[in-house]
């Protein structure tokens, strides 16, 4: 799927798999950008194990599934699209006759001062 067909999906650049210059500084900076200590670390390790097994050129072809899983974990694209679809379906199926107009919710920066009035923080029971 090309970028034109799916503009919101940000994939990792394939030419970034290997650094242009091999220096200790580059290795240290790449360690900072690693996702191994996050919840995406499993997908990153699977992707790089696959790349190590097939090599860089064949890895682009055979490790596509691991790459897509890793990119999905980083961008949460499917989760955002699913939430957007659920929100759209909620608005489409809202019955105005039964429930009235859609609730707008509080405006940005607006708060209700009586929110904690039923349970004041200084009351000791």
TrEMBL record:
Q: Which UniProt keywords apply?
A: Disulfide bond, Electron transport, Membrane, Mitochondrion, Mitochondrion inner membrane, Respiratory chain, Transport
Membrane-related topology note: Peripheral membrane protein
Q: Name one GO cellular component term.
A: mitochondrial inner membrane
Q: Name one Pfam family in it.
A: Ndufs5
Q: Which InterPro entries match?
A: NADH_UbQ_OxRdtase_FeS-su5
**Disulphide linkage map:** 40-73, 50-63
Task: Keyword check for Disulfide bond, yes or no.
Answer: yes
Q: Where in the cell is it found?
A: Mitochondrion inner membrane; Mitochondrion intermembrane space
Concerning its family, UniProt says: Belongs to the complex I NDUFS5 subunit family.
What the protein does? Accessory subunit of the mitochondrial membrane respiratory chain NADH dehydrogenase (Complex I), that is believed not to be involved in catalysis. Complex I functions in the transfer of electrons from NADH to the respiratory chain. The immediate electron acceptor for the enzyme is believed to be ubiquinone.
Q: What is this protein called?
A: NADH dehydrogenase [ubiquinone] iron-sulfur protein 5
Q: What is the lineage of its organism?
A: Eukaryota, Metazoa, Ecdysozoa, Nematoda, Chromadorea
């Amino acid at each position: 799927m090309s970028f034109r067909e799916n503009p919101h999906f940000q994939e990792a650049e394939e030419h970034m798999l290997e650094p242009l210059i091999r220096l200790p500084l580059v290795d240290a900076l790449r360690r900072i950008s690693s996702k191994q200590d996050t919840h995406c670390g499993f997908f990153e390790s699977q992707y790089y194990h696959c790349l190590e097994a097939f090599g860089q050129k064949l890895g682009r072809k055979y490790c596509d599934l691991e790459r897509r899983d890793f990119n999905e974990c980083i961008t949460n694209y499917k989760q955002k699209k699913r939430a957007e679809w659920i929100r759209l379906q909620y608005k489409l199926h809202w019955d105005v006759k039964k429930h009235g107009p859609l609730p707008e919710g509080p405006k940005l920066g607006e708060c209700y001062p009586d929110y904690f009035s039923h349970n004041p923080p200084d009351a000791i029971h």
